[in-house]
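Please review this one:
***
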Amino acid sequence: MQALNGAVWRKSTYSGGNSTNCVEISDNAPNGVHIRDSKNRRATPLHFTTPTWHAFLTALPPTARRT
């Protein structure tokens, strides 16, 4: 897996302010999108290619398309 040096992480809008289910997304990498558990940042993040991530987002109902 490519090193994620320089990755810019942002908390998902679904994580909420006081939620214990927090996910962070980094979509500034040239090879796709990475998702990690904000409480376990040392674990290997999930990786999705850009086309796979876009297909996932497109398949969501319009009311669920926040990230």
Q: What stands out?
A: The chain has one helix and four strands. The beta strands are 10-11, 23-29, 32-37, 46-48. The CA atoms of residues 9 and 37 lie 11 Å apart.
